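In the lab's daily routine, each protein ends up as an entry in a very long ledger. A line of letters takes care of the sequence, but it says nothing directly about the fold. The three-dimensional part falls to structure tokens, numbers that each stand for a local backbone shape. The outcome of that step, for a single protein, is printed below.
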Amino acid sequence: MKVAVCFGGGGVRGAFQAGVWQAIADLVTPTFTIGSSIGAINAFATTRLTPRELTQWWRSRAPR
């Protein structure tokens, strides 16, 4: 069965997506990831970064 993960758009929601991705990454092995707007950036990042690295990237760049 093919499984896709779709990340939506919405600016700062990207940081939330990263946290959720880190929480479910051990449970889901997607065939592919897709997204729109910031979600597209996160989808691409999942091909290069581990879930933990993506979360850390957001923590270091998101405004406080």
